[in-house]
Design a protein that fits this description.
By secondary structure, the protein is mainly alpha-helical. Helices cover 47% and strands 6% of the residues.
């Protein structure tokens, strides 16, 4: 059941991330997710236009284990690689827009590292970190989307094109038992 108004607006901690890291995040909303998707799409388009950025993206994907080090420049134009770059950009944008604090991120000397967009991207590049963060962070929004999937508005703005959920009633059959009373409010609306 979808309970309107039940989605918290308070930041919360994502626990059990890889390497003992914890992220304090602002809740994900459909609007903020769409904004991050739009930014990721623009970054992907810019990446495709700039060959130097393609090489940097290739190096980053190799570093994360998402691409074979033997990949050639031609492979960078492969649609799957472009999709992967889009996904990387999307997760980076989600993290940069929603992280408020973190715990368990330190430099080589063991000192806590400041939460900056650059450092967020560095943390996300650790093996499996990006995937685990994305799954845990977007899970609630995914459930909301699934709950709304078959109950959203239609393209025409009516339910005329929605699938029928009840059988047709044979002619002459009353939709209500004989002699049932219609509540006063309903009777007034019917007139």
């Amino acid at each position: 059941m979808l309970r309107l108004g039940s989605q918290s607006t308070e930041p919360y901690w994502l626990e059990d991330l890889p390497y003992g890291v914890r992220f304090e995040v602002k809740p994900l909303t459909g609007l903020s997710e769409h904004l991050c998707q739009t930014i990721a799409q623009k970054r992907t388009e810019q990446m495709m236009a700039a060959q130097e950025e393609l090489k940097a993206a290739r190096d980053a994907m190799i570093e994360m284990g998402a691409m074979d080090p033997e990949a050639t420049a031609e492979e960078l134009e492969n649609a799957a690689v472009v999709d992967n770059a889009y996904w990387v950009y999307l997760v980076e944008e989600l993290a940069k827009k929603h992280l408020k604090d973190w715990d368990g991120v330190a430099d080589e000397a063991g000192e806590p590292v400041e939460l900056t967009p650059e450092n967020i991207c560095l943390v996300l590049r650790y093996r499996d970190f990006m995937r685990v963060f994305y799954k845990r962070f977007t899970f609630d929004q995914l459930l909301l989307d699934a709950a709304k999937k078959d109950s959203g508005v239609s393209a025409l703005g009516t339910t005329a094109e929605a699938p029928t959920t009840a059988e047709d009633v044979p002619a002459g059959v009353s939709p209500a038992p004989e002699g049932s009373e219609v509540p006063a409010a309903s009777a007034a609306q019917a007139e």
